[in-house]
Specification:
single chain, 224 residues, alpha/beta, Rossmann fold, 6-stranded mixed sheet, 9 helices, 8 strands, 16% strand
Length: 224
């Protein structure tokens, strides 16, 4: 699929197949062909083993109606030190320590007692605790403020530098420093390569997406 420990940005217009790619990697849908991750054909792995190796930070953060500890460590196999280190990494440790029950504090249904940004940071901390080989990010910063967006991006670069990271891009600028760009269109991979190389291709798919981004930015500046 891609080199080990590479950062891959997955881009394309709405309906291009970006989310379908992630569903295929998690074996949530039937596929034709073979998916190879780190030299292993994923069809030879059990679902449990495959999904142990992959962490997902979804566009809509998923929290469970249980303790904060169980949200961060669903399988109860991590040491407290690892959980607190993950909370430190996402700058939530101070807030959790201030809670009367700490890690045993209850999370309400769908995490409604936390802001959208806090829920996304908890999902990021969960991924850090898991130590997965592959991290998939499905537009994780689409609904968060700029400060949380920057924190998420910086934490991913630091804590997942030894992982393969695939990011569905909501904002193209969040993946411009990726090692590789995958451009999807109508369910197919139509371009792949370093962002600078793809951006320089005249009449290329990625170049067209960049041009659209710049056009929108120029229009917004004119309206201010």
């Amino acid at each position: 699929m891609c080199d080990i420990c590479s950062r891959v940005g997955v881009v394309g217009r709405t309906g291009a197949g970006k989310s379908s790619l992630f569903a295929a990697l998690l074996n949530l849908t039937r596929i034709e062909g073979t998916i190879v991750v780190d030299g292993v054909d994923t069809s030879t792995l059990s679902l449990a083993r495959l999904r142990q190796a992959i962490s997902v930070i979804p566009q809509e953060p998923v929290l469970f109606s249980t303790t904060l500890r169980r949200n961060l460590d669903p399988f109860m196999c991590a040491a407290d030190a690892d959980i607190w280190a993950a909370l430190e990494a996402v700058q939530l440790a101070g807030e959790v320590r201030a809670l009367p029950a700490g890690l045993e504090s209850l999370v309400s249904e769908r995490g409604q007692n936390y802001s959208i940004g806090q829920r996304q940071l908890i999902c990021l901390a969960r991924a850090i605790v898991r130590h997965a080989r592959v991290l998939m990010i499905d537009e994780a910063t689409a609904h968060v403020d700029n400060r949380t967006d920057r924190l998420i991006q910086a934490t991913i670069r630091d804590k997942f530098r030894h992982c393969t990271v695939l990011t569905i891009a909501h904002r193209l600028n969040t993946v411009l420093d990726s090692d590789t760009i995958f451009v999807m269109d109508d369910g197919h991979l139509v371009e792949s390569g370093p962002p600078a190389e793809l951006g320089a291709r005249q009449d290329g798919h990625f170049a067209a997406l960049l041009a659209s981004m710049h056009h929108v930015a120029d229009a917004e500046n004119e309206s201010i």
